[in-house]
Amino acid sequence: MTWRKIMVPLIAQSGAEALEQVSSASLHAGLALGRLFEAHVEVCCLAAGLPEPRGALFAGVPGSAIELLTNEIDKRNAEGIRQARGLFDALVAQYGPENRDEPGPKSGFSAGVVEVTGIPSAVAADRARLSDVVVLATSAEAASPSYERLIQGLLTESGRPLLVVPAAHHQPLSLDRVALAWNGSLEAARAVALSMPLVERARAVTVLTLQEDGPFSPAAEAFAEYLLWHGIAAECVSLELDERPVGEALQAEALNAGAGLLVMGAYTRSRLSRVVLGGATGAILREPRLPVIMVD
Q1: What is residue 106's predicted lDDT score, i.e. its pLDDT?
Q2: Is the per-residue pLDDT at 223 higher than 50?
Q3: 22-25 — which CB contacts under 8 Å span 24+ positions?
């Protein structure tokens, strides 16, 4: 089992320092992952589209005003895409993939850029379904409503694992130890299954278990036995909250264990969490302290 295609979404928007920082971190992480798996990295530049002029939004608006708005959006999109391509070109020179946009008979590390126009959260989720994993950096500074909608769409609508990295993360993943958050839920099980290409490469694995309210049982020993069928000997650690929020406790214990990656299910406590980025999922997505793979 391996990953052959990795997607890195970038919002084509210029002049936003926080967004440029997460774009850089996203590309670093995506290209490093592509080099690790000798996979293709698709950098997807997301340009905002304009609703149809005949729609209710433009009722009574003069055609000249609509044209001015359209031209301004096109101008901003073009500048944002230019900056994204410039960043891509600089990092391609650093990481050294073959520059390719189309599948080829020769397998190996390659990268290419595609431009997609529309509502970013929707078109990104559609495009992500054609990849094995999505890589995206986040930070509290970049947590605008549009960026949160992008993350929400990728997490809940793509059906693919989302690797979230801190905006300051500019180095390859450390797989000396990987932490798996396990509470017996469907989402946790799916997260482990879809992340197995990375988990199997880890030198050591720690299972973090937490008994949450609800019908799930951590069953750490049974889960560790399952991992042994994959040749993975895991250390089990029972997580104590000590009045800490779940997201904070999970990241702190993963870091204390020496993990360079945390794997977890998203929104396992309540389906109402899908409405907003709340709870442990939202806290980690806004400001991760280490790379985290999430699966809904």
Answers
A1: 72
A2: yes
A3: 22/136, 22/137, 22/138, 22/139, 22/142, 22/147, 22/167, 23/84, 23/87, 23/137, 24/87, 24/91, 24/137, 24/170, 25/137, 25/165, 25/166, 25/167, 25/168, 25/169, 25/170
